[in-house]
Write a structure and sequence with these properties.
Blueprint lengths: L2 E6 L5 E5 L8 E10 L5 E10 L6 E2 L6 E4 L5 E4 L3 E2 L7 E7 L9 E4 L4 E4 L10 E10 L6 E10 L6 H5 L7 E6 L4 E6 L5 H6 L1 H4 E6 L5 E2 L3 E5 L6 E7 L15 E6 L2
Parallel strand pairs: 6-13
Antiparallel strand pairs: 1-2, 3-4, 5-8, 7-11, 9-12, 10-11, 12-13, 14-15, 15-19, 16-17, 16-20, 18-19
Length: about 260
């Protein structure tokens, strides 16, 4: 079945839904609507729907999917250009975590430049293999997509995280204040070396958005205000177009500060 009736609208109109996500539907399909009027006369209307073949966007050149990294490597990889074979839609790219594994903390995707940044700065990443996926899809379709599976192999010997963290001070991080203009306060539960964080922020934190569709989005910009405190700093977040400015005005998306170490 490629078509079905929806419920009546407030204005007493019936909606017909058509879905063509099966290659077997390519060609001319006939849709017949039948109904009776108030005098019980039967009426029939025939609709003919021409379904064209369609395929997902593709990268114009092969994408690199295998990486061998060392501690403190800082790799920026720009994804190849892509196009839609039929030219009937525009493509969009996003990245996803793999099932049963968290998204690698040292990987960042910058949507505005379509680049993947990999910067493992913690010894806890050593000797492990990480996976994530790059999804290239038609903007106006939830079915036409290509998924590329990425693998990152870290050199070195694995480190027991429990032993590594046994004597570490456990620090809680909170955002006690955040207004509708995305102006907020970030607070540590214990004093930290704030000067080090200021000078190495991109190595300590990854800041991004998880939108209501659970897709990761990068910020257009984020500004920090540092002052004589070893527990707090202020920030202002800005989005990509068309939202630009304002967090809660967007779609109640989540602003996430992810600690990389």
């Amino acid at each position: 079945m490629f078509a079905w009736l929806g419920t009546n609208t407030i204005s007493n109109k019936t909606i017909v839904y058509v879905q063509t996500n099966d290659e077997a539907l390519v060609g001319t399909q006939r849709l017949v609507l039948r109904g009776c009027d108030s005098l019980n006369n039967l009426h029939e209307i025939n609709y003919y729907i021409n379904v064209s073949s369609n395929s997902a966007p593709e990268f114009d050149t092969d994408i690199q999917t295998q990486w061998n990294l060392n501690l403190n490597d800082n790799i920026t990889y720009k994804l190849p250009a892509f196009s839609d074979p039929e030219g009937n839609d525009v493509g969009e790219v996003y990245i996803n975590a793999m099932e049963n594994q968290d998204f690698p903390k040292f990987v960042k995707y910058v949507n505005s430049t379509q680049t993947i940044i990999m910067n493992p700065t913690s010894r806890l990443f050593n000797g492990r293999t990480y996976y994530f996926s790059v999804v290239l899809k038609e903007k106006n379709s939830d079915f036409m997509m290509n998924t590329y599976y990425m693998t990152i192999k870290m050199s070195g010997d694995p480190i027991d995280e429990a032993n590594e963290m046994e004597n570490a001070t456990k620090i809680q991080m909170t955002i006690p204040y955040l207004n509708y203009h995305s102006e907020g306060v970030f607070k540590f539960s214990h004093p930290v070396n704030m000067k080090f964080i200021e000078n190495n922020f991109s190595k300590v934190f990854k800041v991004y958005i998880n939108n209501t569709e659970k897709k990761r989005e990068e910020l257009r910009d984020i500004e920090y205000k540092w002052f004589n405190s070893n527990t707090t700093f202020n920030f202002t977040a800005r989005f990509q177009e068309p939202y630009m400015y304002g967090l809660l005005n967007k779609r109640n998306d989540l602003l996430i500060f992810e600690c990389l170490n």
